[in-house]
Design a protein that fits this description.
alpha/beta; TIM Barrel; eight-stranded parallel β-barrel; two-stranded antiparallel sheet; 11 helices; 33% helix; binds SN-glycerol-3-phosphate; binds calcium ion
Length: 287
C-alpha cells in the first residue's frame, strides 16, 4: 500500500507541483519517530536526561519546544510560563537566563509520577538550545518548535544563527539534521526567507476532521515540507491528499502502541512519541 502510494506521490510531484522547487524535501520511505519533548514518558520533559534517554532509543529526531528569556536566550520549554515544569512562577520572558538557571526543572515530575521518580531528576535545570547542540552535536537529529514567536522578537534569526553556528544545515542518512515547526505561519514564512534550505513543518489544529482547500495546499507548499496535526483529526483520505500535494504529514501525540499502529495504517510520514521505545516495537515487528 505504502509503495503504491509513494509512487503516486512521486508522479504527482513530477507532474503538478513545480512550485516546490525551493522547498527542502524530507525524503523517507519509512515512518519517522520523533521523541516528543524528549523521552517525556520516562523523564521530565525538555531536560537533558529526557533527550539523552531518547537518544539511546531508536528515534529519528528529538523534539525541542523553544521559549526565550528576558535577555534573549533560546531555552527548551513547552509553556510560556514556568509554573508547570519548574519550581518557578510567571513568564519565561520575565526571567534572565541566570535567574532561570536557579530553578529546578525535575522535581515536578517526581511529584506527578511517583512510580517513575528518580532523585537524579531533581538536579535538572532548564537547558538552552545551545547547550543541547553542544551536548549532542551531530549525533542526533533535531525537530525544533518555535513555540510563541509572536511574543519573542527576533526569535527566528536567533534559531537560524545557532543552527548555522553548529553547522547543522546538513543531511544524515538522507534525513535533514534539523526540521523546524510552528503553529505560526508568519514565523515559518520568515524562516523560509531567512534560510530556504531548512525544512519546515506547519502545525495545524482542526476542531473536527481535517480539511484544507486547494488554495490552502498551494500556499502551504510555497514554504513548508509538511504539516503536523493531532491524530484525532486525521483520516487516510486527508493524509493522502496532503501527500499528493507534496506535503508530509506528521501526527501528534502518540501515547501508546494502538495509536502508533493506527498512525502507520493511516500512512502518516512521522509520529511524535512520548515513549521512544515504541519505535523498537515496530522494528521488531518488521514494520
Ligand atoms: O510539535 C508537535 C506537537 O508537539 C505539538 O504539540 O503541545 O506538544 O508542542 P505540543
Ligand atoms: Ca511541540
Amino acid at each position: 500500500m505504502r509503495l503504491i502510494f509513494s509512487f503516486l506521490v512521486v508522479l504527482s510531484l513530477i507532474s503538478g507541483c513545480a512550485s516546490q522547487d525551493s522547498i527542502q524535501p524530507i525524503e523517507t520511505q519509512e515512518i519517522l519517530f520523533i521523541a516528543h519533548r524528549g523521552a517525556s514518558a520516562f523523564a521530565p520533559e525538555h531536560t537533558m536526561t529526557a533527550y539523552e534517554i531518547a537518544h539511546q532509543a531508536n528515534v529519528d529526531y528529538i523534539e525541542i519546544d523553544l521559549q526565550m528569556t528576558k535577555d534573549g536566550v533560546l531555552v527548551a520549554m513547552h509553556d510560556e510560563k514556568l509554573d508547570r515544569t519548574t519550581d518557578g512562577t510567571g513568564f519565561v520572558k520575565e526571567y534572565t537566563l541566570k535567574e532561570l538557571k536557579n530553578l529546578n526543572a525535575g522535581k515536578w515530575f517526581n511529584e506527578a509520577n511517583p512510580g517513575l521518580a528518580n532523585r537524579e531528576f531533581e538536579q535538572e535545570k532548564v537547558p538552552t538550545l545551545e547547550e543541547i547542540f553542544l551536548h549532542f552535536g551531530d549525533d542526533v537529529n533535531y525537530y525544533i518548535e518555535l513555540k510563541s514567536p509572536r511574543i519573542y522578537e527576533g526569535m527566528e534569526e536567533k534559531v537560524v544563527a545557532l543552527i548555522k553556528k553548529y553547522d547543522l544545515i546538513q543531511e544524515d542518512n538522507n534525513l535533514p539534521k534539523v526540521i523546524l515547526e510552528s503553529f505560526n505561519e508568519d514565523s515559518l514564512t520568515k524562516l523560509h526567507a531567512l534560510e530556504p534550505s531548512l525544512p519546515l513543518i506547519q502545525l495545524l489544529s482542526f476542531k473536527e476532521k481535517a480539511t484544507l482547500s486547494n488554495l490552502d495546499f498551494e500556499r502551504l507548499r510555497g514554504y513548508a515540507s509538511g504539516i503536523g496535526m493531532h491524530i484525532k483529526s486525521a483520516d487516510q483520505d486527508f493524509i493522502h491528499e496532503a501527500q499528493l500535494n507534496g506535503l508530509q504529514v506528521h501526527l501528534f501525540s502518540i501515547k501508546n502502541e494502538i495509536d502508533m499502529k493506527n498512525a502507520i495504517q493511516l500512512d502518516a510520514n512521522g509520529i511524535f512519541i512520548d515513549n521512544p521505545t515504541l519505535s523498537e516495537l515496530i522494528l521488531k515487528d518488521g514494520g
